[in-house]
Design a protein that fits this description.
Isopropylmalate Dehydrogenase; binds 1,4-dihydronicotinamide adenine dinucleotide; binds 2-OXO-4-methylpentanoic acid; about 20% strand; alpha/beta; ten-stranded mixed sheet; binds magnesium ion; single chain
Length: about 375
Amino acid sequence: MKKKIAVLPGDGIGQEIMDGALEVLKAVGDWFGHDFEVEKGYIGGAAVDRFGTPLPPETVKLCRESDAVLLGAVGGPKWEHLPKEQRPEKGLLAIRKEFNLFANLRPVKAFESLLNASPLKKEMVEDVDLVIVRELTGGLYFGQPSGRQGKHDEVAVDTLVYERSEIERIVRKGFELAKKRKKKLTSVDKANVLETSRMWREVVNEVAVEYPEVEVEHMLVDVAAMKLMYQPKQFDVLVTENMFGDILSDEASMITGSLGMLPSASLREDSFGLYEPVHGSAPDIAGKGKANPLAMILSVAMMLRHSFGLKEEAEMIELAVQEVLNAGYRTGDLWTMGRGTVVGTGAMSQLVVERLEADHALSSILAAYL
Ligand SMILES: NC(=O)C1=CN([C@@H]2O[C@H](COP(=O)(O)OP(=O)(O)OC[C@H]3O[C@@H](n4cnc5c(N)ncnc54)[C@H](O)[C@@H]3O)[C@@H](O)[C@H]2O)C=CC1
Ligand SMILES: CC(C)CC(=O)C(=O)O
Ligand SMILES: [Mg+2]
C-alpha cells in the first residue's frame, strides 16, 4: 500500500516523540511491504517562529495532499504572551476545524504490566478498556463571541454553542462504536445546568431509538469524573462535548499510569484523520530525552487502523509496545520504585522497533515451516 503522511512534530517534546514514532512506522512498513511517504510540516510555536502564524497555508496544503496527519504537540512558555490568534494552540484548533475532524477517539486501556504504575488500586484498573468519544470542532473552544468586552476589557467571554446536527453526528459515532464493542454508551453532560447539555440529552435519546442493542445512560460530568476514578470498569464508550472530553481524558489517563500512554484519532466521515497523543508539549521535560513516546507510537497504530484499514499492522505495533512493557522497560513517568528498567525517549522507541523486527523475523520463520 502507498500512502502519504503529513508529519507535524510541533513544539516541546513533539519532535522527540515523533522521531521514534516514524522509526516504528518505517519498521512496520518494511515488514508488510508498504510505502509510507512522510513529509514534514510546521504547526504551533514552530510555525509561528518560521511563518508568523500557528497554521500556515503551506501546512494546510501539505495535509490536503496527504492521506493522514501525524501530530506531536503544540505550545510552550515561549509563545504564551502572544495574542490568542497567534498562540500555538490556535493552530491545533484551526487544523481540526479546517479538516472538519469532529470525532476525537481517545481509547483508555490498562496494560497488564502497568497496573502498578497507576495511582489507583490494581483491582480497580485491571481490565479497564474504554473509549472517550469527544466532540472536537464545536462547543466552548470555538463559540463566538469569545474575547474581552467592556470599556476597560473588564469582562471576559467564551461562548458554549452547539447545533443539533453537530451533536447528532458525534452521538452517532458513539453509538456505532459502542455497537461494535461492549454495547454500552455513557453520554456525559451537565444537563442540570446547561441548555446545550439538555439538547445533547434530547439528541442522544432520539438517536438511541436506532440502536436498541446499545444500553444508554446519561451521566452528569462531575459524577463522571468521580466514577472514572472510582469504578472505571463500568464504562465502555463515553460520548461527550469538547471541553468535558478534553478534561476527562487527561483524568482517565491515570488509569493507564501516565498521560504519556494515551493516543488519539481525530476523524471525519471519510478515511482522512489526524493522529496525536492526548498530552501536550510538556515543556517541563522537553529536550531532556525523558518523554514517553508510547502515546505517539500508539497514535501511529490508530492511523494504520482507522485511516488505512491496516488492522494487523496496527495490532503488531500494539503487541510490540505490550512486549516492551512486559519486559520491564519504563520511561520515567511510568517508573514505580523498584519496578522495571528506566529508559529515555529514544531507547524506548528503539525497543519497540527491535520488538517489531524480532516479531517479523519470528513470523517469517513460522511461515516457512507452516
Ligand atoms: N494536543 C496538544 O498539542 C496539547 C497542547 N497543550 C499545550 O502544551 C503545553 C504544556 O501544557 P501542560 O499543561 O504542561 O500539559 P502537558 O500535557 O504538556 O503536560 C502535563 C504533565 O504531563 C507530563 N507529560 C505529558 N506528556 C508526557 C509524556 N509523553 N511523557 C512523560 N510525561 C509527559 C508533563 O511533563 C507534565 O508534567 C501548553 O502550552 C498547552 O497549551 C496541552 C494539551 C494538549
Ligand atoms: C491544547 C488544546 C487546544 C487542546 C487540548 O488540550 C486537547 O486537545 O487535549
Ligand atoms: Mg487536553
